[in-house]
Amino acid sequence: MAESRAKPGLRAPQLFAGLLLVFLGAVPLLAAALGEPFWVTLFTRVLIFALAATGLNLVLGYGAMVSFGHAMYLGIGAYAVGILSYHGVDSGWLQLLLALGVGAAVALAVGAICLRTSGMAFIMITLAFAQMLFFLAVSLREYGGDDGMQLKGRSLFGALDLNNATVLYYLAYALLLVVLFGFWRLVNARFGMVLRGCRSNERRMGSLGFPTLRYKLSAYVLSALVCVLAGMLLANLTRFVSPSYMAWTVSGELIVMTVLGGLGTLIGPVAGAAALLLVEEGLSSLKLGVPWLDTLLNQHWLALIGLFIVFVVLVLKQGLYGWLVAREVRR
Amino acid sequence: MTTGLFFTQLLNGLQLGVLLFLLSAGLTLVFGIMNVVNLAHGSLYMMGAYFAAAGFNAFDGSFLAAALVAIPGTLLLGLLIERLVLASLYRRDHLDQVLATFGLILFFNEVVRYVWGASSVYMNVPSWLSGTVSLFGLPYPSYRFAIIAVGLAVGAGLYAVIHRTRVGMLIRAGASNPEMVAALGVNIKGLNTLVFGLGAALAGLAGLMAGPIVSVQAGMGEPILILTLVVIVTGGIGSIRGAFYGALIVGIVDTVGRAFLPGLLREFLDRSVAQAVGPAIASMLIYLLMATVLAFKPQGLFPVKHG
């Protein structure tokens, strides 16, 4: 997890990060050139989950706070769009205001309670809060309850027409770049140093006079807000909101993406989200030419994902991108 | 709201609590000794229910056969999981354990879908328990009553084993200071495998008992796993006593809350508001309980005393 920016020049990790971002930027062009418009939708999903995983990474990777409930912020973002749209408010700015306002209030309250605990109890209490919100959404019968509801229309942001898949794609891409840049500045600034200090030894940081709780809470709220933004995008992508966006398995998947890519590396969660979603997509539509094997894989690919996760944890401890970084540090 | 209905719901809560206790006991012990969190415990419960249904249907409706398949089956499966996956995660942090066992959940759900199909599998209540018993003049299904009896018997048995035998003494010692126990020459790894197997068998027992009253399907382990986690965190991680009281509290609060809270709210609130809010608050109740407990007592209600 060491940051390898000690050596100047273009090393493998930076090269990989740059190529990944350039590739993501070129996806709509490639899709148009190859005549595969479905790619744009698929990769918008990748970008949205990359954004959410990047948000989670701030607490999980840099702060070592294992939040098992970040899917609830995806849900808050999605439901802010859904509920306002249901009542005829299509203005994206109002939706953004509501989503960020509610998200910040919830994250402040939940974070303040959760951060009283640590370790195992922190994992469980974040899960408990996410479950609370999940059941709240399930019981909102007016807004579709268990089944979720179709959005009447996508958010209206002035001249941006989100009904155009490419526009939505580049909106998600731009947001991801902005968040990545902001986090890059943040984790290398004093704030990030304190946060990473708490990861190594919180008591020592406290003795040095830092109000560690305040730093951790700020990081928690910030990471929640990034997930809220991802949730808004997700609702706009699918034109649908449902409680399943904040199911506990989604929180689990976000953790998987972050760890798979490389904890505490800036670009790791992006790589992890892309890898996980593309492998899922690939396995569920794989055609090897052997009929029984194809049906087996296409129906039960989750079993392979499960084994893959176990494998990553047991063997590939630093994650995909983390492995590149670690190799660079060893050299 | 009659007292009779309330009493029945209380018993239903007790029955859920007892099932939760069967699951929490093993989980909390493993956590207490080896500091390992095992999310796949819910999968063991699910496998127990499937094994039971398979045994039940293979031996034309013999509940005994179901038990003889389910409990040893989950015991073996548990030992296999412990050796293959968890044993190498003992020294790693909670994040890795959460992830690996999350992967196992996905895996087992698909295995079940592959072997038994996507639709649910049924097993019946054994004929000798299909009637009702009369408790203080109230009829109550015998099978549910049997679940309560089995759960309480297991609780008493565990209490006796843990507080009255040598193995139990080692388990208690392991929970409060594993390094010291290992230094005194006890095979702590073997002890943990034993406890893990015991926990798996208890999860299998829970699956067997729940089989006839729930629909046995892929993913059935997750909701109850989350309840189990709520129980052990509320009760105090690593403590059997905490698991017991925590399970009863969660079981009763959840069941009674769902049954009566919407009606109760109707007394105070506007009908339409109560209709909308009641079920929401009822299903959030145990999580509220857990958050409140953790906010004031981060160690849980009955923490293990260390040192």
Q: Helix fraction of chain A? A: over 70%
Give the beta-strand count of chain A: 2
Counting H and I runs of at least 4 residues, what is the number of helices of chain B? 11
N/C terminus separation of chain A: 15 Å
CATH hierarchy class name of chain B:
Mainly Alpha
As for the number of domains of chain B, it is 1
Task: Please provide a written account of the structure.
The complex is a heterodimer of chains A (331) and B (307). Chain A has helices spanning 12-34, 38-60, 71-86, 92-114, 120-139, 165-188, 190-207, 212-238, 248-261, 268-284, 291-314, 320-330; strands at residues 149-150, 240-241. Chain A has a domain at 23-247. By secondary structure, chain A is mainly alpha-helical. Chain A is globular and about 60 Å long. The longest helix of chain A is centred in the last third of the chain and has 27 residues, at 212-238. Chain B is mostly helical and 307 residues long. Chain B has a single domain, classed as ABC transporter involved in vitamin B12 uptake, BtuC, CATH 1.10.3470. The model of chain B has no long low-confidence stretch (mean pLDDT 85). Chain A binds chain B through residues 60, 66, 68, 113, 116-117, 119-121, 123-125, 127-129, 131-132, 135-136, 138-142, 248-249, 252, 255-256, 259, 296, 299-300, 302-303, 305-310, 312-314, 317, and chain B through 31, 37, 85, 88-89, 94-96, 98-100, 102-111, 113-114, 222, 226, 229-230, 233, 237, 276, 279-280, 283-284, 287-288, 290-291, 294-295, 298-300.
Topology summary:
The complex is a heterodimer of chains A (331) and B (307).
Chain A: H1 12-34, H2 38-60, H3 71-86, H4 92-114, H5 120-139, E1 149-150, H6 165-188, H7 190-207, H8 212-238, E2 240-241, H9 248-261, H10 268-284, H11 291-314, H12 320-330
Antiparallel strand pairs in A: 1-2
Helix pairs in contact in A: 1-2, 2-6, 2-8, 2-9, 2-10, 3-4, 3-5, 3-8, 4-8, 6-8, 7-8, 9-10, 10-11
Chain B: H1 3-34, H2 41-58, H3 63-84, H4 94-116, E1 132-135, E2 138-141, H5 142-164, H6 166-176, H7 178-183, H8 188-210, H9 221-235, H10 240-268, H11 271-296
Antiparallel strand pairs in B: 1-2
